[in-house]
Specification:
Blueprint lengths: L4 E2 L1 H12 L5 E6 L2 H4 L16 H11 L2 H14 L4 H14 L10 H19 L9 H10 L8 E4 L5 H8 L4 E2 L2 E2 L4 E3 L1 H6 L7 E5 L6 E3 L5 E3 L21 H16 L3 E6 L6 H13 L4 E5 L8 H9 L3 E4 L3 E4 L2 E5 L9 H5 L3 E2 L2 E2 L4 H10 L3 H8 L3 H5 L1
Parallel strand pairs: 1-14, 2-3, 2-10, 3-7, 4-7, 10-11, 11-12
Antiparallel strand pairs: 5-6, 6-9, 8-9, 12-13, 13-14, 15-16
Length: 392
């Protein structure tokens, strides 16, 4: 890294203009770091609402007993990974091919039961409610609803939980998640590809499945919140052929379509970019459509965000903002504050800068920044040096 530096004020001024402009095509990519930002413990002992993928994996592992526990741990050693999705991929693969042959102490029937146990454990862990008070999800929905838009906001998430659904329903915000119906909603890929719902409807695309999904007796994927977890539908990481093709294929096609639209912007939060399937899709789309852009807000330092940084160094239309620096236009450099872009900008700076670090990599700080960003009027007043009036 040379002496080049990035001024966070410059880029956050531009970013703030983008998020308060209702004409921009904006999407959000939200990963496991989102619910981690909500503390349901104490000030002295942090307890995330839902653990990250490492925490989730540990809780699932600890919930298994007997032969299932032994088989799970053996598979982790074989694939040299503690990622729950990778292990589940191997579990489902073995359940389809080994028959009566035992592998790590289980036959095909044993692995089918293990798959159900894993899914039931995941559901038990992530099936939580949002806090009653203001929270990052309510802040995000408030920002979406607070701006008159020409283009709908699309949320792509790898999370299994129902926190977005709960936040939108609390705010009485209409949304579409690919399912249609009432008693047993069915998946409708044609509605996803057409994408012709009203602009004020949020699009919610759950790329890795949901605890609200189940497989009915006909093998179709339906939305069923009463499921006990045994029939939940998750992708087996890269092996999507092991699940119903329609949900995951259609949802990834929607991500691709969004990224190929002119002048689209995808803002990532709580997402590590370590998921090879999603990362490769995004790289492909950025190469095909140079007018698209990704802004990745990462929680850690540059050296600890290797997956995101690696992509941004190759694709100039992806920017990575970390706590200590950024990769912008393919240039990796540390942050260094410069002159305020407008009068009284220091008060806005407090929302994204603290302790000499950029803090929007935290989902809670990011959504709070969105909620406080206001409309275009605030920016105009700030540019005139009258921020006090804007905040009133």
């Amino acid at each position: 890294m040379d002496t080049t530096v990035h001024n966070p004020d410059q880029y956050m001024f531009d970013f703030r203009q983008i998020i308060t402009n209702g004409r921009k095509k904006v999407g959000l990519l939200v990963g496991a770091g989102a619910p981690v930002s909500i503390n349901v413990g104490t000030v002295d002992e942090y307890k995330p609402l839902i653990p990250n993928i490492e925490g989730l994996t540990k809780k699932v592992r600890d919930s298994l007993i007997g032969k299932e526990s032994a088989a799970y741990k053996s598979l982790e050693e074989q694939i040299d990974s503690s990622n729950i999705e990778l292990v589940l991929s191997r579990v489902r693969g073995l359940s389809e091919v080994i028959g009566l042959t035992e592998v790590c102490g289980l036959d095909a029937i044993g692995y089918k039961k293990l798959s159900k146990s894993i899914c039931a454990s995941i559901k038990d862990i992530v099936d939580v409610d949002l806090p009653d008070e203001e929270n990052p999800y309510s802040d995000l929905i408030s920002w979406i609803n607070g701006i008159t838009r020409k283009e709908p906001v699309e949320i792509f998430t790898t999370n299994y939980d129902l926190l977005f659904e709960e936040a939108m329903e609390r705010a009485k915000t209409p949304y579409f998640d690919g399912f249609v119906g009432a008693k047993t909603a069915f998946f409708d890929p044609s509605s996803i590809s057409n994408n012709d719902m009203p602009v004020n409807w949020i699009r919610l695309w759950k790329l890795h499945g949901s605890i609200g999904w189940a497989e009915n007796n006909h093998g179709d994927v339906v939305r069923d919140f009463s499921s006990d977890g045994e029939k939940m539908v998750y992708p087996s990481h890269i092996k999507y052929d092991q699940t119903q093709a329609a949900p995951f294929t259609s949802l990834f096609d929607r991500l691709k379509s969004f990224m190929l639209e002119p002048d689209s912007l995808l803002i990532a939060s709580g997402f590590s970019f370590a998921d090879a399937h999603i990362a490769s899709k995004l790289i492909e789309c950025m190469a095909a459509n140079p007018s698209s852009a990704i802004i990745a807000l990462q929680y850690n330092k540059l050296e600890d965000e290797k997956s995101a940084v690696s992509i941004a160094l190759k694709r100039p239309n992806m920017s990575v903002y970390c706590s200590d620096g950024a990769v912008i236009n393919g240039v990796k450099a540390l942050w260094k504050l410069g002159e305020e872009p407008v009068k009284h900008w220091g008060r806005i700076r407090q929302e994204y800068w603290a302790g000499n670090e950029f803090k929007l990599g935290d989902f809670k700080s990011f959504t709070h920044f969105l909620a406080k960003s206001g409309g275009e009027k605030t920016l105009a007043l700030a540019a005139e040096g009258d921020l006090n009036e804007a905040e009133e």
